Each structure stands twice: as C-alpha cells, then as structure tokens.
C-alpha cells in the first residue's frame, strides 16, 4: 500500500491520529521500512505515557498519541543509532547492517532531529520521521495544583477537556489551563521535517508571547536576577536528569563528568552547582528546542526554562536563528557572518 | 551594602585571556615601548580566541577573578582567518547570559588589540581595571574555599 493515500485524508481528532498512527506503524514495520519505531505507549499511572520501542507489526497497537506524551523522543533516536553504529565496528565490513529508526515526532522532536542531523549524528535516511500534529502536553504540576496535590486515581481526555478523579473529588479541567508553559507558546507544534505526516496540521499556539517571561526577568535588577538564579540553583541536586533526557545532550563524555580538566567541582559549595548549571545551559545555545523535557523530568522543580529561553531569545536577536527550524541552516555557533553584531566589544576610546 | 565595600587595600584581579598573535604581541609591544598599564592583570596566552572555551571565563570567575578580559586579533586579522569570528558569536551570547543570571556586565569584557597597538593594550587594561574597580570585589559565583 502506498503511504501517500493516507496523508491526504483529513484526520482531525487526536483519537483518529492515534488510530492512523497504529495502522501506518504496522505497514512501516511489515514493509521493513523501519527496523524499530520509537513511540509512546500508555504509562502505568494515570496521566502518563512512556516511550516504547516497537519492532513488530503486531506490537503497533500499543502506540498512543495524546496530551500525556511528554518526553522528546529524539533522544532515543540518537541513542539507538549511535549504539548500533558502535556495535557495527566489531563486525566485518561486508557483514555490517544498517538500521532505520522510525520515530513518532511532533514539532519539537523534529527540531531536535534537525539539530542532530546538522551536527552529523546520522544521515537523513537513517531515520524515518512519522510526523504527528501536536496540541501540547499536560503539565502534571499544574494539574496537581488544581486538585490540591492529591493523588490522581483516574484521568481521561475527551476533546480539549481532562477529567481527573482523586480519592475525594472528580474534576474536569480545560486543557488550555493545564498545558505546559513551553507548549502554550510553541512556535513549531507541527513537524518541521517528516517522511510521513499523520493527520492535518494542528492549529497554531501562541508564539507571540514566547519571550514574555524572559522579558519580565530582564527588567529585574541585577541583584534580583542573581538572587533568583541562586535560589533556583540551590534546589538542584545535580542528579543530571535534565542532561540525560535532553536530545541535544549526547556527548560521549559530558563536561560534567570530565576529570581532566575537571570543569565542575563536586563540593557542597553552591557555586559548584551554579557553574554546572551555567555550563549545561550555555551548551544549549542554538540547540534548545524548548521541548520542556528537562523541566518535566527535574525532580526538584528547578526553573530551567527562564534561562534556556533567554539563550534562545538572544540567538534569534543576534543571529536570526531558531534552533532546529531548518535543515539547510547551520547551528548558530557553527557559523558566523562578517558583520555580526559587535556592540558588546569593549572600546577604550568610547569608554572614557 | 556595607559588606560589599572594598577595603582600601583591595586591588581588582583581572584575568586576561589573549591570543598569541595579536593581543599578546600587543602587550609585548607595550612592554618594549615602556607604556605603563596597571599591574592588576594576569595574562593567559592561547593560540587564538577561537581556542577559548567559554567555560574558561566561567571558571575564572568561580576561581575568584574580579574581571575577565578576552582579547584577540581584529576581525579579518585572525592568524587562523576566522577563529575570532566564531569566538565573537560565543562571547556575544555568553556576556548577555552571564549578565542575565546576575553577573555584572563589566566583569566580562571582550575586545580586539592588534600586535601594533601597544598603546591600545594599555588603554584597555586601564579601562577594564577601572570598570572592575568601580564594581568592587566579585561576590557572585566565587567559590569560597
Ligand atoms: S534543554 Fe531542555 S527544553 Fe531544551 S532541548 Fe534539552 S530537554 Fe528540551
Ligand atoms: S551538558 Fe554539554 S557536555 Fe554534557 S552532554 Fe550536554 S552538551 Fe554534552
Ligand atoms: S534535573 Fe533538576 S535537580 Fe537534576 S541536575 Fe537537572 S536541574 Fe538539577
Ligand atoms: S589568532 Fe588572534 S584571534 Fe585568532
């Protein structure tokens, strides 16, 4: 069967996208167009979906696509391909195999894939991108706040409403009020690259206000900004979960573990954690797609986004680049222009 | 804040990370020509500004530098052609980011000094030293041993 036949159909609701996704996944695996498909399956707790790896057509019915799908799956694409490549190094050249990794990808996931492609992690034909339209995912903290932190026993999505049941009460919340902050202002909620698009594009979110938080933070005084940074980073326990989950963090040896030179100290001094954070955040210049995975995974609720968004804003202001938005472009720090802005360069003549 | 008042004996410590081919030679020229500049600066020589990992700047601040200066060849004059142009992008974003989190903008300075600009080198060091002196000793991000 030809895939083109499906793509022209109008698939509006999320449930239909899910159904179509399973059908297409079956075909892709049966036709051996992909060796593995990275997607989401229902989690074991209410309101969760976990990444899954589908390798046979009959498993495709496990796939889900809904507003509980949080994690950016590009992480696993890079992982699978690099592990496979490593394993092939021990194999005779003539016996080497290639693996095509399929991935269920919404806007931010495809942007991460673009970054990995720009950074030459794999070739375009090593991956098969099953694009899905995205209307954002639910921020569990926001839901918890609405039910006074009680344990959610049941949750179901109907249209743009989330119904939750706790031991004592049942509540229906409009999705618009409980979506993650990064989703609410997402500029690329539809895939920027895809080999197969499921359903029709999702309506736009509200990207006009994506930097509102950063702009407000910039207006604070220096002392206020420092105390905010100090307070947020004091929560960090250096578990490295934010790095583990980030699709742009795939360095074989991360600076955080490097010992020669040792970039970050491991003492209890708070500056060690601050320096770790500055360095990790700074590594995201032009490489953060605001997928929110690091924020969602942080066990201490560190506000990483206020800082990541600043880097994103500056890169756009200075170099006109939006991370991972175009396969033709190079990452902003891998290129330069002769007339890049220089107003920050110190001039002793002017300083007088 | 009174605790931030520098004791009168305090002198700013400035780490200058400079490229071998221009600014280091410029510093040399200043020396040979006996042009005076403040002794507050500790110079670290690197092959090119493109070689400078932005982490160096952060590490220097954590290690107690009151100010960090990065200087290399003027655009178009880099010994490796474009090292300073890549560096310019890194430092443009780094400077803004550090100031955003709350490190005073004048603690991290970036400039160009060519091999023939001994006079400019001395002016830069004077200017940076005075700017950092005005800020007082660094507190944020400094590791207390
Ligand atoms: S830093 Fe966080 S928001 Fe940015 S790409 Fe990585 S996981 Fe996503
Ligand atoms: S924090 Fe930096 S060094 Fe570590 S994995 Fe991420 S990008 Fe690589
Ligand atoms: S996930 Fe949170 S607590 Fe863990 S290292 Fe990252 S910021 Fe720190
Ligand atoms: S050699 Fe001086 S900046 Fe590159």
Give an account of the 3D structure.
The complex is a heterodimer of chains A (352) and B (145). Chain A has three domains: 1-137 and 185-208, no CATH class; 140-178, no CATH class; 211-345, no CATH class. In chain A, strands 1, 2, 3, 4, 5 and 9 form a six-stranded mixed beta sheet that branches. In chain A, strands 6-7-8 form a three-stranded antiparallel beta sheet. Chain A is of the alpha/beta class and 352 residues long. Chain A contains 14 helices and nine strands. In chain A, helix 3 runs parallel beside helix 4 (107-118) and helix 9 packs across helix 11 (270-282). With 145 residues, chain B is of the alpha/beta class. Chain B has one domain (14-135): 3-Layer(aba) Sandwich (Rossmann fold). Chain B has a four-stranded parallel beta sheet with strand order 2-1-3-4, sandwiched between helices. The two termini of chain B are 23 Å apart. At the A-B interface, helix 9, helix 11, helix 13 and helix 14 of A face helix 2, helix 3, strand 4 and helix 4 of B. The complex binds iron/sulfur cluster (3 copies) and FE2/S2 (inorganic) cluster (FES). Residues 236-242, 297-300, 302, 304 of chain A line the site of one iron/sulfur cluster.
């Amino acid at each position: 069967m030809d895939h083109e036949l499906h793509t022209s159909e109008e698939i509006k609701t999320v449930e239909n996208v899910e159904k179509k996704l399973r059908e297409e996944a079956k075909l892709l695996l049966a036709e051996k167009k992909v060796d593995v498909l990275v997607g989401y399956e229902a989690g074991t707790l209410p309101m969760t979906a976990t990444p899954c790896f589908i390798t046979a057509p009959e498993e495709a019915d496990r796939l889900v696509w809904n507003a509980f799908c949080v994690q950016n799956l590009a992480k696993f694409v890079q992982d699978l391909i690099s592990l496979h490549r490593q394993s092939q190094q021990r194999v005779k050249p003539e016996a080497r195999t290639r693996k095509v990794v399929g991935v269920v990808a919404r806007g931010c996931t495809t942007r991460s894939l673009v970054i990995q492609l720009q950074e030459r992690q794999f070739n375009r034909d090593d991956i098969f991108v099953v694009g899905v339209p995205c209307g954002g995912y639910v921020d569990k903290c926001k839901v918890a706040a609405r039910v006074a932190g009680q344990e959610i026993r049941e949750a179901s999505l109907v249209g743009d409403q989330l119904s939750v049941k706790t031991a004592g009460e049942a509540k229906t919340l409009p999705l618009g009020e409980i979506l993650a902050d990064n989703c609410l202002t997402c500029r690329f909620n539809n895939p920027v690259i895809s080999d197969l698009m499921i359903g029709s594009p999702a309506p736009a979110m509200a990207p006009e206000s994506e930097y509102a938080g950063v702009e407000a933070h910039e207006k604070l005084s220096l002392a206020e900004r420092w105390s905010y940074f100090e307070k947020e980073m004091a929560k960090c326990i250096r578990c490295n979960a934010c790095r583990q989950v980030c699709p742009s963090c795939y360095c074989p040896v991360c600076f955080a573990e490097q010992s020669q030179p040792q970039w970050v100290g491991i003492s209890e001094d708070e500056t060690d954690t601050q320096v770790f954070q500055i360095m990790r955040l700074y590594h995201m210049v032009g490489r953060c797609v605001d997928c929110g995975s690091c924020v969602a995974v942080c066990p201490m609720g560190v506000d990483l986004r206020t800082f990541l968004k600043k880097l994103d804003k500056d890169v756009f202001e200075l170099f006109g680049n939006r991370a991972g938005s175009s396969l033709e472009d190079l990452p902003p720090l891998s290129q330069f222009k002769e007339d890049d802005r220089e107003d920050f360069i110190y001039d002793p003549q002017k300083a007088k | 804040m009174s605790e931030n008042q520098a004791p009168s004996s305090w002198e700013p410590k400035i780490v200058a990370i400079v490229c071998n081919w221009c600014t280091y030679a410029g510093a040399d020229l200043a020396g040979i020509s006996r042009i005076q500049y403040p002794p507050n600066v500790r110079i670290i020589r690197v092959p090119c500004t493109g070689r400078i990992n932005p982490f160096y700047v952060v590490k220097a601040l954590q290690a107690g530098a009151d100010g960090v200066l990065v200087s290399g060849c003027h655009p178009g004059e880099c010994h490796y052609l474009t090292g300073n142009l890549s560096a310019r992008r890194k430092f443009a974003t780094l400077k803004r980011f550090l100031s955003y989190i709350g490190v005073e903008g004048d603690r991290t300075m970036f400039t160009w000094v060519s091999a023939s600009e001994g006079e400019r080198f001395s002016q830069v060091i004077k200017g940076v030293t005075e700017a950092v002196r005005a800020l007082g000793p660094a507190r944020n991000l400094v590791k207390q041993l």
